[in-house]
Design a protein that fits this description.
mainly alpha; 92% helix
Length: 116
C-alpha cells in the first residue's frame, strides 16, 4: 500500500512539474523586461541629473562673468574663486552623470536585444 501511494505521489509531482514548465519561463521573461525598463529609467534619471548640473554650471558661469566686471578687491576675488570651484564641481558631476547615462543606455539596449 505504501508503495502504491509513493508511486502515485511521484506521478503527481512529475505531472505538476510538466504542467508548470511554461510558467517559470514567462515569469523569467517578465523579470528580464522589468530589469530592462529599470535600466532605461536609470538612464533617464542620470540624464536629468546631468542636465541639472549643466544648468547650475551655466548659472555659476554667468555669476562669474558679472562679478569679473566689477572692481577687484580681495573679497570679490575670494568670491570668484569660490564660484569657479563650484563651477568646476558641477561640470565634473555633469560629465560623470552623462557617462553613467551612456553606460545605462548601452546596458538597456543590450538588455532589450537579449530579450528579443
Amino acid at each position: 500500500m505504501a508503495l502504491k501511494s509513493a508511486f502515485a505521489l511521484h506521478i503527481l509531482i512529475a505531472a505538476l512539474l510538466m504542467v508548470g514548465i511554461g510558467t517559470p519561463w514567462a515569469a523569467e521573461n517578465a523579470l528580464h523586461l522589468n530589469l530592462c525598463q529599470e535600466l532605461v529609467s536609470q538612464a533617464r534619471q542620470y540624464e536629468a541629473r546631468a542636465a541639472h548640473h549643466a544648468v547650475m554650471a551655466k548659472t555659476l558661469r554667468q555669476q562669474i562673468e558679472v562679478h569679473s566686471s566689477q572692481v577687484k578687491n580681495s573679497a570679490l576675488m575670494s568670491l570668484i574663486d569660490n564660484l569657479f570651484a563650484q563651477y568646476d564641481e558641477h561640470r565634473g558631476m555633469e560629465n560623470k552623470f552623462r557617462d553613467l547615462c551612456r553606460k545605462a543606455s548601452d546596458e538597456a539596449g543590450k538588455c532589450m536585444k537579449s530579450s528579443q
